[in-house]
Every structure is written in C-alpha cells, then in structure tokens.
C-alpha cells in the first residue's frame, strides 16, 4: 500500500533532485590579483579560489589585468569557460602552454558576449602545447559584436559531443567573427565543424600545419542563415571529415595540405570547384578531387599553374642564394 507518508517522501526526493539538476553553476571571475598569471593561484580569482568542478565556471572578462595561463603540471576540470566578456576595451586572452584543462558540462566559449551594444568583445585562446578538452561543444564568437580567435601551434584540442544543436559542435563564428589560426597540433571534433552559423556572421580558418579530424561534416555558411561568410585557407596540414557542405558565401582556397572526405565526394567537390567555391592558389592554380576505391576516400588538393610554379621556384632560388651569401 502506498501511504501518504511514502508519497510525501517521493515528492521531497523529486523536488530535491529537480533543484539539484536545475541549480546554475557558480560563475567565478578572473581578476589577475595574484600577480603570477597562473590559473591555479586563488588570489587571481574573485573570491580567492580558482574555479573547479562541475558546478563552477570561469569568466575571463577584463582585458586590462594580467591574463591567465595554464602551464605544465596543471590538471584543471570545471563546468564552463568564457573568454571575452567586456565592453571593447581590449582582448581577453587565455594561454595554454602545457598541462590540461577540461570543461565537463558546458562549452568553451571564446568571444562570449558584449555587455554594451555596439562595442566589440574579443576573446583569444592561445595554445602552444597541452591538452584542451570540452565535453559539450566549442564556440568562437558566440554573440553579436564578438570576435573569438584560437591561435594554435601545438597540443591537442578535443571537442566531444553527441548533440545536434549549434552549441554541441565546433562552431567558428556563431553570430560574430570567429577565427582559427592553426600552424600545428591536432584538433579532434567529434561532431561537426561549423563555419558561420547565422546571417552576418564570419567563420575563418587559416591553416598552415597540423591536423583537423572531424567525425561529422564540415559545414560552411549552410547551418542557419546562408548570408554569413565562411573562408577556409588551407596552406598546409591535413583535414579529414565525413563530408563538406558549402553555401554560396563560402570559399575554400588550397595552396598546400590536403582535405580528405569519406566516400566518393568527387561529384559534389567538382561542382564546388566549377562554381568557384573551391579554388587553388587564390584562383592562380587548379583544385581537384580524386577518389580511391580501396580506402573509400576522396582527396581534395590543388596545384599551381605553370607561371605560378616558375615564380615559386624563383623565390626558392633567391632564398637559397641569400642563405649562401650570409
């Protein structure tokens, strides 16, 4: 028999569990007051302790103070990170030179929002080593009047997610200007990579080295609003993805490196090339797609035109001559 007391106990348990899951994470703001720029120094945070655990999130929003660093020996885990939440007085920067930092509940956001309408909020994530992991999406330039930039030369970035919303992806330019500058290291996007998610947004990738491995598709100006601008400049490194989808305001220019897509995508890629969405050497070369039945992969590359090759060769000879004279 279900008694009134048992019903009351169940009701109390439900209310308690609901309150637990609905409780918002506590925001802890960086103030740089500790004098050493180290993430783990408590005096660098308002309240005197660094954010940690699933119920605490970090806000880096004052560009006029010493900016935080994650270094070797640090192993940081917390709810969420927001870099860039200010009124246009400069860029907020989080530097990762070693160690590891993980968000377990919410995304890592670089370029969060502008408290003052019409002022540009800038967030920068510099990664020269170490491991950066998010269990729930990666967002660059989340809102209007924001700019979010990742500068990556080494290390590993992993964006984990099994959701389908814009906040569950590796998103470059949701509503503002998102930029990924990559010269080395590895990015693993376990869902999709989205460039320019809305009208008026801009998503840019400048890649000269390293590896980008996307489990799902790369979508350029196709997610929500095709009037946003997407630009992928592939000048080195390797990009792998399930598929490539491009809107009319997207451009992929290849001057080095390769993009590898699952299955036979030659028809779609050839159509992008014919319409000028995929170019080689900024139009001075030829982009092409080739399918390998053995591996079931399509490789997209570009070669320069003969005149461009001659100029590149002359540049190499001049550089060699200068080194010898030195």
Q: Would you write up a description of this structure?
A:
- The structure is a single chain.
- The protein has one domain.
- Helices cover 15% and strands 43% of the residues.
- It is built from 3 helices and 25 strands.
- The termini are far apart.
- The model is unreliable at 1-23 (pLDDT under 50).
Coarse structural class:
mainly beta
Low-confidence stretches: 1-23
The fraction of residues in strands falls at 35-45%
Order of helices and strands: HEEEEEEEEEEEEEEEEEEEEEEHEEEH
- Put simply, the count of helices is 3
Number of strand segments: 25
Give the C-alpha Rg: 23 Å
Cα shape? elongated
Distance between the termini: 94 Å
* Major sheet size, sense and barrel closure: 25 strands, mixed
Helix content: 10-25%
Mean pLDDT: 87
Number of domains: 1
Write the layout of secondary structure elements.
Layout: H1 4-22, E1 26-29, E2 53-60, E3 69-70, E4 75-83, E5 91-96, E6 100-103, E7 108-110, E8 121-127, E9 131-134, E10 138-140, E11 146-152, E12 156-159, E13 170-172, E14 177-182, E15 186-189, E16 193-195, E17 202-207, E18 211-214, E19 217-220, E20 229-241, E21 243-246, E22 250-262, H2 266-274, E23 278-280, E24 285-292, E25 297-304, H3 306-325
Parallel strand pairs: 1-2, 2-4, 3-5, 4-6, 4-7, 5-8, 6-9, 7-10, 8-11, 9-12, 10-13, 11-14, 12-15, 13-16, 14-17, 15-18, 16-19, 17-20, 18-20, 19-21, 20-22, 22-23
Antiparallel strand pairs: 22-25, 24-25
């Amino acid at each position: 028999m279900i008694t009134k007391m048992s019903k009351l106990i169940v009701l109390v348990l439900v209310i308690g569990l609901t309150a637990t899951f609905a409780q918002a994470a506590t925001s802890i703001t960086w103030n740089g007051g500790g004098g050493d720029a180290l993430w783990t120094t408590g005096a660098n945070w308002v309240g005197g302790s660094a954010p940690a655990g699933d119920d605490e999130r970090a806000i880096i929003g004052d560009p006029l103070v010493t900016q935080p660093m994650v270094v070797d020996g640090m192993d940081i885990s917390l709810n969420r990170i927001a870099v860039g939440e200010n009124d246009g007085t400069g860029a907020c920067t989080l530097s990762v030179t070693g160690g590891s930092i993980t968000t377990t509940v919410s995304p890592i956001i670089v370029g969060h929002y502008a408290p003052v309408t019409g002022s540009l909020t800038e967030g920068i994530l510099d990664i020269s080593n170490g491991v950066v992991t998010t269990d729930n999406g990666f967002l660059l330039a989340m809102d209007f009047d924001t700019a979010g930039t990742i500068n990556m030369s080494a290390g590993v970035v992993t964006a984990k997610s099994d959701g389908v919303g814009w906040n569950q992806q590796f998103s470059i330019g949701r509503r503002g200007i998102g930029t990924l500058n990559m010269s080395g290291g590895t990015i693993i996007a376990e869902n999709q990579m989205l460039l320019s998610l809305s009208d008026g947004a801009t998503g840019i990738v400048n890649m000269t080295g390293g590896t980008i491995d996307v489990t799902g598709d790369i979508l350029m100006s196709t997610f929500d609003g095709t009037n946003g601008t997407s630009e992928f400049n592939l000048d080195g490194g390797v990009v792998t993805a399930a598929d490539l989808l491009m809107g009319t305001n997207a451009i992929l220019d290849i001057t080095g490196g390769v993009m590898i897509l699952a299955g036979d995508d030659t028809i779609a890629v050839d159509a992008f090339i014919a319409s000028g969405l995929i170019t080689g050497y900024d139009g001075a070369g030829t982009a092409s797609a080739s399918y390998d039945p053995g591996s079931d992969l399509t490789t997209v590359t570009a070669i320069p035109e003969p005149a461009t090759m001659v100029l590149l060769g002359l540049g190499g000879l001049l550089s060699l001559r200068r080194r010898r004279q030195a």
